Sequence to fold (185 residues):
Amino acid sequence: MENTENTLINRVAESGLITINLEDFFPKSELVLFDIKEYLFMELILKEKDFRESLKLYDWSSLKGKTLLLYCSNDAIIPTWAYMLVTVNASVFADNIFQGTETDYYRNQMQKTIESIDFKKYDQQRIVIKGCGEKPVPASAYVEITKHLQPYAQSIMYGEPCSTVPIFKKPRILSNKTNYEESKS
Fold:
């Protein structure tokens, strides 16, 4: 006869919890930052002729297989056509071109990824949204995943399966008089 008193039971594994790690949805492409401020006269004024000349000298081949982020880190007024010129030059090599900062890009890409998920597969499931990772997952991703899961999930929690913060629990629907009377006691 086996001694079951010393057998370890993994209650997390047996709990039926489904963990969603938003870091798994994180964009994988290497980012290259293109700050237009570096191409402005006195970091304030865009001179078309100088800007076009600078773009001719840029090594666009260094963008091969990467994502280019176009932005201006100061308060200069950048004409829309400047972003368009960079895009024309970069599009031959870059896998993706995005106008905005890293934060803007991550927010945008995470939202697109989350919106592409078929959430029906989480119907009546107990979900843990993993927190505290190594990548800068924007708070907006947690809002998006919660918004999309809520109509389907039985419950939504935040954290780790062994230590969670309850976020949402679908109310029980009382199916008959017996259940109603049991819930009152």
Notes: Helices lie at 11-14, 48-57, 80-90, 102-115, 139-149, 177-184.
